[in-house]
Amino acid sequence: MRTIARLTRRLLLALMLAYFALPLLTTLVFSLSQGRQGYGLSAYAALIRRADLLEPLLLSIALAAATIALVLVVLLPAMIAMHLLAPRLKGLFEAIAVLPFVVPAIALVAGLTALVPGPGWLVGSPAFLALPCFVLALPYAYRAIDVGLGPLDLPQLRLAAASLGAGPVRTILWVVLPNLGPALVNAALLTFTVVLGEFTVANILLFPTFPVALARIGRSQPDVAAALSIVSFLLTWAALFGALRAGRLAAPRAANRDGVSP
């Protein structure tokens, strides 16, 4: 029975790997295909020559930076305040955080169109996209920060810091935030990944972000679009592995700082 169970697990794992790997493999082969000339890197070389990709890429990176700033300015203080002052509201916070998984992006866009008569300096500018991107990245950023806040006994840390003469602001800056380094890195990189791949909102609101440019290129040069998809996939996974690596490097430092051998 154990042998059958082991073989079943391996078979399911192989099927899952094939499910995720085969589309990437076919996309890679298509990006390398040059028709009767065989295979080559002409599609990837065309990416370097396309100057029209730079502006959408920079726009997406700037949008990701603005969304990360919103996470740090809006979400992080709200979560720290919740853990400190109202831990019973955690269930409500978690319910709100998963709402973007329930509400489709197209419905989010429909709601945002009601803000069109809003301030001209915001609506119609690329900065407006930071708001829906913040909502879409909320579940990932919330979970990453919550994992960092969970092991911390914030009320006890606040009392200990207050006994040493530290106020609330100094407690957060010098006690809480240093313990959230890996969690904040994970939240920032996950937010960056979500924003870099966001297509629906930007396309409907007519903002030329990187995914929109990718879709436009795919209509005329599908091989170049396939090559760009592979490059984007590698960059995304590099960001995720960077987050994991940062967390693993920070764990021994935190243990040493607390007097525990790793």
Automatic annotation (TrEMBL):
<dbReference type="InterPro" id="IPR000515">
    <property type="entry name" value="MetI-like"/>
</dbReference>
<feature type="transmembrane region" description="Helical">
    <location>
        <begin position="157"/>
        <end position="177"/>
    </location>
</feature>
<feature type="transmembrane region" description="Helical">
    <location>
        <begin position="183"/>
        <end position="212"/>
    </location>
</feature>
<keyword id="KW-0813">Transport</keyword>
<feature type="transmembrane region" description="Helical">
    <location>
        <begin position="59"/>
        <end position="80"/>
    </location>
</feature>
<dbReference type="GO" id="GO:0005886">
    <property type="term" value="C:plasma membrane"/>
</dbReference>
<feature type="transmembrane region" description="Helical">
    <location>
        <begin position="121"/>
        <end position="145"/>
    </location>
</feature>
<dbReference type="GO" id="GO:0055085">
    <property type="term" value="P:transmembrane transport"/>
</dbReference>
<protein>
    <submittedName>
        <fullName>Spermidine/putrescine ABC transporter permease</fullName>
    </submittedName>
</protein>
<keyword id="KW-0812">Transmembrane</keyword>
<keyword id="KW-1003">Cell membrane</keyword>
<feature type="transmembrane region" description="Helical">
    <location>
        <begin position="224"/>
        <end position="244"/>
    </location>
</feature>
<feature type="domain" description="ABC transmembrane type-1">
    <location>
        <begin position="57"/>
        <end position="243"/>
    </location>
</feature>
<keyword id="KW-0997">Cell inner membrane</keyword>
<keyword id="KW-0472">Membrane</keyword>
<keyword id="KW-1133">Transmembrane helix</keyword>
<feature type="transmembrane region" description="Helical">
    <location>
        <begin position="92"/>
        <end position="115"/>
    </location>
</feature>
<dbReference type="InterPro" id="IPR035906">
    <property type="entry name" value="MetI-like_sf"/>
</dbReference>
